[in-house]
């Protein structure tokens, strides 16, 4: 054994068990109590911590290529490691878009030098314009398992139907940003009484709900696996929940900010709180939290959206939407689940942040084409050693100056949080130790 993770509670799908882990050659080689560490082994202190599969983010904007002033693959990966993530899925709304095999291969190559594993989501349509299908088969041959035009949905239902038929044949999943831009128009926050009082143009929840309903019906027609991104509306959630109850191949994610912030956050006109879909009323937040705890939502995904300071330092109307998420998501998810002492919190935490996201992204098994290892495992002998040591009682204060990201647009600056990654192993290598990147 080259690495021994000692003193923690190993959280498998059935619950936490006091045990140590031994790692060698990138794999878990032994699991048991009070392991004897060889003299030359590196010992990772997990006392008082949960030891679980490394977190997996389904929805990360790394901005490279095209906007490296906001984030790079390297800086985004460092932010992910600080947050406890062993793998992230890079969104394709870069410049140029990740809509060809060549662009996918570029990001994959850059990702191989990062401290966490970087999977790539390919675009559904060329240039993400919603008109002509991108060559999904060529990208799938490189190991791409998730396709999306994120930043916008595919507006034309016939184009999306053809994309779903194509995707089903390839055995890949489509992920949709569900907002009808024709209904949203130039809206910048949730449409309602508050937007009227603030004098800001609203984005109606109906824009999300109609597109979710349409996409679910197209998934029913085609049999294509559909993933609904960043749910924010209670009615949209109800549509997804009903589809899942029918056995349709529909999964859904929610973001930390839609679980912990509501529309009143924009009352100060701070563009840090501008995001699409927008922050909703408290009734929607409460519905999402209840669904997360009940297991009706598959995953918490960050929608980590870095922006250079000068672009966010504009009026609320003019600033781009999006906020950071990677470094705070774990603590915020634990908070939404009811905290460390909530019944089943440990299992639910790793289900929503690791195991289910890994399955949705196709990362539950290693893939030689993409060069990515397996994530979201049960932490048993023989598995790839992608794991996090998470201290669920660690109290800390979020500060933008402490971020590993190049950007600073976090809505949580100054907020007291509980729960933080203490150590992270990626491919059997310690990349975070004692909250410091190695």
Could you describe the 3D structure shown?
With 438 residues, the chain is of the alpha/beta class. It has 2 domains: 3-50 and 380-437, Urease, subunit C, domain 1 (Roll); 54-361, Alpha-Beta Barrel (TIM Barrel). The protein has 13 helices and 19 strands. Strands 1, 2, 3, 4, 5, 16, 17, 18 and 19 form a 9-stranded mixed β-sheet that branches. Strands 9-10-13-14-15 form a 5-stranded parallel β-sheet. It has a 3-stranded parallel β-sheet with strand order 6-7-8. The longest helix has 18 residues, at 205-222. The two termini are 20 Å apart.
Which tags fit this structure?
single chain, 438 residues, alpha/beta, Urease, subunit C, domain 1, TIM Barrel, nine-stranded mixed β-sheet, five-stranded parallel β-sheet, 13 helices
Strand content: 15-25%
CATH architecture grouping of the largest domain: Alpha-Beta Barrel
Query: Assembly type of the shown chains?
Result: single chain
Average predicted confidence as pLDDT: 97
Shape summary:
globular
What is the number of independent domains? 2
Q: What is the β-strand count?
A: 19
Structural class determined from secondary elements: alpha/beta
Given as residue ranges, the uncertain stretches (5+ residues, pLDDT < 50) are none
Number of helical stretches of at least 4 residues: 13
């Amino acid at each position: 054994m080259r690495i021994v993770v000692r003193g923690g509670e190993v959280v498998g799908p059935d619950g936490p068990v006091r045990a140590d882990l031994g790692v060698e050659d990138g794999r878990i080689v032994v699991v048991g109590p009070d392991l004897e560490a060889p003299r030359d082994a590196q010992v990772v202190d997990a006392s008082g911590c949960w030891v679980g599969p490394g977190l997996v983010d389904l929805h990360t904007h790394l901005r490279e290529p095209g906007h490296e002033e906001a984030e790079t693959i390297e800086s985004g990966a460092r932010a992910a490691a600080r947050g406890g993530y062993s793998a992230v899925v890079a969104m394709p709304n870069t410049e140029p878009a990740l809509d060809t095999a060549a662009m996918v291969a570029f990001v994959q190559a850059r990702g191989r030098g990062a401290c966490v594993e970087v999977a790539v989501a390919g675009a559904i349509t060329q240039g993400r314009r919603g008109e002509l299908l991108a060559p999904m088969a060529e990208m799938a041959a490189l190991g791409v398992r998730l396709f999306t035009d994120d930043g916008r949905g595919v507006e034309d239902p016939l184009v999306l139907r053809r994309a779903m038929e194509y995707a089903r044949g390839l055995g890949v999943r489509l992920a949709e940003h569900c907002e009808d831009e024709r209904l949203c128009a130039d809206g910048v926050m949730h449409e309602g009484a508050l937007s009227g009082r603030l004098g800001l143009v609203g984005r109606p929840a109906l824009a999300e709900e109609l597109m979710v309903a349409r996409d679910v019906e197209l998934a029913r027609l085609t049999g294509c696996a559909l993933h609904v991104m960043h749910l924010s509306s209670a009615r949209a959630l109800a549509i997804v929940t009903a589809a899942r109850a029918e056995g349709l191949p529909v999964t859904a994610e929610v973001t930390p900010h839609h679980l912990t912030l509501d529309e009143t956050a924009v009352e100060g006109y701070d563009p840090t709180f501008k995001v699409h879909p927008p922050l909703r009323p408290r009734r929607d937040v409460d519905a999402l939290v209840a669904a997360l705890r009940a297991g009706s939502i598959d995953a918490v995904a960050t929608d980590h959206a870095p922006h250079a300071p000068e672009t966010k330092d504009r009026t609320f109307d003019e600033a781009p939407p999006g906020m950071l998420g990677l470094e705070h998501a774990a603590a915020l998810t634990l908070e939404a689940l009811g905290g460390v002492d909530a019944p089943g919190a440990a299992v639910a935490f790793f289900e929503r942040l690791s195991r289910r996201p890994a399955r949705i992204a196709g990362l539950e098994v290693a893939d030689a084409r993409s060069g990515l290892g397996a994530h979201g495992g049960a932490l048993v002998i023989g598995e790839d050693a992608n794991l996090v040591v998470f201290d669920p009682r660690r109290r800390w204060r979020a500060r933008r100056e402490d971020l590993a990201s190049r950007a600073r647009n976090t809505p949580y600056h100054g907020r007291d949080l509980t729960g933080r990654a203490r150590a992270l192993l990626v491919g059997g290598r310690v990349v975070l130790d004692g909250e410091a990147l190695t």
